[in-house]
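Provenance

Sequences were taken from public entries as deposited. Structures were produced by running a predictor on each sequence independently, with no templates supplied. The record for SigE family RNA polymerase sigma factor from Verrucosispora sioxanthis is shown for reference.
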Amino acid sequence: MKCDRDEQFHSFVLSRRAGLVRTATLLTGGDAHLAEDLVQSTLTKLYVAWPAVQRADNIEGYLRRTLVNALTDERRRWWRRHERSVADLPDRSRAEPGSGGDLDDGLRAALRDLPPKMRAAVVFRYFYDLSVADTADALGCSEGTVKSQTARALDRLRAALAQYPLTGVTR
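Predicted structure for SigE family RNA polymerase sigma factor:
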């Protein structure tokens, strides 16, 4: 029945939307607007495929894979290559990196500079503590690719974050 399907999907969305937005925000390097768009695209795709979603052995994996696919689709759009979303209009100049800015801002910027698949590997492996196998499943690649992508990403993140002073933190 369509009514049951709608009620089940509605319950699913209520229980998972906040987590999806968090994950999408991380995957987009902190772009909250793009994250909301990705979640909406993901939920639309899930609604259309709802019977298949319910039959899936690993609903979380299905959800992650759909979100990554939505990000990949979004990055392929021609206008995304020419514009960058910003939360605030640039009425004033921003502080220079390394001028005492928040480390979270530095991490967000460093994540944003990673290629999308590399960023996704880091987000799933380290922010969500997924195994290499689960990350490979979410990204649709081999476990070796996940290992190499995360190693390269961590090297890039270390280099990018080296320019931000860590105050009060012992290395």
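The two ends are 59 Å apart (CA to CA).
The chain is about 70% helix and 0% strand.
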